[in-house]
Amino acid sequence: MPTVCGKTLGMATALWTGRISFGLVNVPVKLFTAVKTPSVSFKQLHSRDHAPIEMKRVSSTSGEEVPFADVVKGFETKAGRFVVLEPEELATLASKATPTMEIEEFVELDEIDPIYYNHAYYLAPADQDAEKPYRLLLEAMEECGKVALARFVMRTREHLVAIRPIGDVLGMVTMNFAEEIVPVKQLHGIPERQPEVAERERDIARQLVERLAADFDPAKYRDTYRRAVRALIEKKAKGQKIGAAEPAATPPTAAPDLMSALQASLEAIGKRDGNKAASKPKALRTTKAPAAKSRAKPKRRSQ
Predict the structure, then answer these.
(1) Residues 140-159: pLDDT tens digits?
(2) Which domain does 122 fall in, by range?
(3) CA distances (Å), 82 to each of 56, 58, 221, in order?
(4) Do residues 40 and 132 make contact, with C-beta atoms less than 8 angstroms apart?
(5) Burial of 163 by CB count in 10 Å (0-12 exposed, 13-18 middle, 19+ buried)?
(6) pTM score, two decimals?
(7) What is the pLDDT of residues 10-63, one digit of tens each?
(8) What's 142's domain CATH number?
(9) At 11, which helix (H) or strand (E)?
(10) How many domains does the chain have?
(11) Are 208 and 265 in contact (CB under 8 A)?
């Protein structure tokens, strides 16, 4: 079994079971999270005796503890004035939970800005009878190069989701609604008139981008802070003394202007790449111009 932070992980548990409605075809599926967040959780303790701290619900007027059964939900309309909503009243607005994920339309993947993506999941066949229609939907989407947009209800809330093939499985991501995206015009500091950029500055900036270009390898990027915290905890648990933190490195001297900063950046990358080449020779990498976008259908995969 895999382990995270010393804890053994079992098989993934389905978060939702239902079906994808694809025209008149229903595909029974199970929903699994695609992202795990193994965080380091701390408890609040009393510094005197390390006793755990308990949080209690206390009235802001009387200071007395309030039992959970006496807690209600209210929306503050003015300072000190609330509209109280009872659970029965809120229940009238809750989305009707149905076991169906209704596909509304298919769109191009590059039409969806990543800012709309929220949380990633996997969809798997619910049983053996679902394997064929599941595969049919996966291959049809793969050959058409389309992403399905659907709605479904989970935990009383309706979600807009995007479904797409990821290898031999269907991936799903919940999406933010358009009204939840902060408009760019609300950002402070965005100039109304864009500053002029000299062609020489643009050329060096392109060179800098090209020198830093690489194929994306997610394995290169790790949560180094979480690993460092775990190592610190394990050291202290073994009785090792934790020394003072090393002083932060002195930041590099700021370049006098944009052009100098660009040229200094190119020189620094050149030195870095030169040191790497000296320690470990490797074949030169050729850069090709980006190919024109093609909408040709991909070849059918063999099963």
Answers:
(1) 999 999 999 999 988 778 89
(2) 12-35+98-180
(3) 22, 18, 47
(4) no
(5) buried
(6) 0.71
(7) 578 999 999 999 888 899 999 999 998 877 888 999 999 999 999 899 999 999
(8) 2.40.290.10
(9) none
(10) 1
(11) yes
